[in-house]
Task: structure prediction
Amino acid sequence: MRRRIPLIITFIIGVVLITGYFVTRGPFNTLYESFSDYFAIITVFAFILGGGSLLKIHLKRVSSRAADWPYSVVTLVAFLVTLVIGLFKVGNPGGMSGEILASGSWLRFMFDGVYNPLSATMFSLLAFFVASASYRAFRARTKEATILLSAALVILLGRTPVGAWMTAWMPESLAFLELPNLANWIMAWPNTAGQRAIMIGIALGVIATSLRIILGIERNYLGRGE
Amino acid sequence: MDVTLMLWIDAALTLMILSFLYRDNPFYKFAEHLFVGVSAAYLMAVGFWDHLVPNLLGKLFPSLMSGVVPGAVGRSPDYYYLIPAVFGMLLLTRLIDRWAWLSRWALAFIVGGAAGFNLPRFLDSDFIIQVQSTMIPLVVLDASGNLLWGASFSHVVLVLGVICGLVYFFFSVEHKGALGHVSRAGIWVLMVTFGAAFGYTVMARISLLTGRMEALGAWLGSIF
Amino acid sequence: MRIPDSILRIDRRIIFLLIGAAVCIPLILKPRFQDSPTPIVQSIFDTVERLPAGSRVFLSFDYGPDTAPELDPMAKALVRHTMTRGHEVSFFTLFPEGVGQIKKITDNLLPVEFPDKAYGRDYVNLGYKAGLGGAINTMVVNFRTLVNADAEGTPLDDLPITADVDEMVDYVIILSLTAGDPGLKEWIQFAGDIAGIPVMGGGTAVVAPELYPYYPQQLVGLMGGLKGASEYESALVDRYPTYRNATMEATMRMGPQVVTHVLIVLLVLLGNLAYFLGRSDRRNRAGRTGQ
Result:
């Protein structure tokens, strides 16, 4: 029961959603519409599961006084405070029926004042590391690496006005070699070719994996044991 | 909320994260853990109010939710929505070790749903239409019948590039002889692709840093 | 320590400082660069431009604050363009964080720059819906099942802009600003290729190269990263000179882009030079030891 029922559920959902794609009328389509809607609803519970899991892990870290446990307290307090503010719409000018991020609400403050800078800065750190990594590891050691490096340099210069400035001296007949034109050409043709080959490969992989999942051949998602 | 106060909080949190560039430190750790807590709760709150309330609770309990879902007034309950509600609750059993196995049922719905959605769409959008889009003339002529060298070259690059790239991904046959040469050309096409992707990635990261520096600039501007 | 080795072993924090300076100095000096739209960006502009006034446009903010410096300028340029053209815009998001991004536009940009435009008549916020591609699928098969009210809970029938919207195909175009999954790819797979609604928009520079295979058959146009946004802004200013004095964020941010790109190119070249000099040095030493 612990493994067979999930396999049956996967099979039914998968078959209905595939059939509904091709059959646009009748009971199959009604099921298709409903399952599609239910799918979206169930994914919201994944957020709740994520929150619950975070709570469980950090409570365990605090109770066992694990290394750096005071930081887990920060996470727990931040989580609980934001959750209360969000679920009860604290400070929302429209009350419980107001828009979730209404101007003046406390959640809006948490979003603009706390979430926004933390999230944006966290990702902006990558600018420093990508530059450092380029300096240390981007080497024209082989023919392939040289091609990769050359393409990257053309894009880096060609996608900024400096590329146009550097190659503005070129005669009209060689305009296609101007860095911006070269960068646009690389994006439109060789990049499209490579990305398309990858895309087709991924598509075939997704199709095969989806079939294996629906037919119950692929069961890793169920985990081990009963 | 006071704009100046917001600027100070924004700047303080930004500097805490940026301090990681020197080395890992308590300020960075504090900001990192704060981010994890706030983001998890934010996702839950928005998911709850923007999706669960109007699309599940408003349909299951319209009279109860009529205060927060104006559209639910006068509507009768739609008990079919007990299905996603039950599956959703089953997903949460993963948090309780004894009942965690029940979450597989909900997981099966999600995995089956993803597989059912993806199979025909990847087949159509990412396979059939991509193959169609690659079927282009290798020789391009203008209206007067003259050969357009540039366009023809680009078309050849695209068609051969896709074929060579696909051959490289074809692992069922050993890449020797003619196939080896084609596969090698495929690697070159992929290298150009990755080079372009790298260039674009650098561009993206710098843009994000620019945004943060502008925010710090606004804060400094408020002081001086 | 020999010179090539010492160059290769520069403290990474020095590189960090150089990058920081390369971003900050142009922000202070504010150099302005002229840009012109490439065909892939121009096609979005032309599509929005050619739509008759009052056309229903669906604009999905599929991103959060982490990618906002790239995508916010696109959002602003698109909103300015669609509003100037008199289109009816429905804002939506497949990202929970996108709710905040929409609010930046509806609270800060629209009331200031378009005070005559009214919520519910000229634009509406449909909020966030979960379900990734499944959410788009539900909207395509039965729009009102998923979206039955705006973000404030007002039923669609009570808003003039959405009263006649029963299906996804009631929108003439779908615009998505994409930071990852779900985004333009899903809009193409689940809406564009199935319902035949033209899909276009912008993506972060990380996502953009992956979307090129869809252009032009499945994707009308694409703004790739800050450069794409800058191109759209230049197209907007060219067509509507009233925007010449407006703050064009992407155009302003191209300054740091230029300097940092040049710096990174120089760093890569320097790194390679040091590596090859060091390698030949090591070979020479090995040769001498062998003798």
Residues 119 and 190 of chain A are 34 Å apart (CA to CA). Chain A touches chain C through 56 residues (CB under 8 Å).
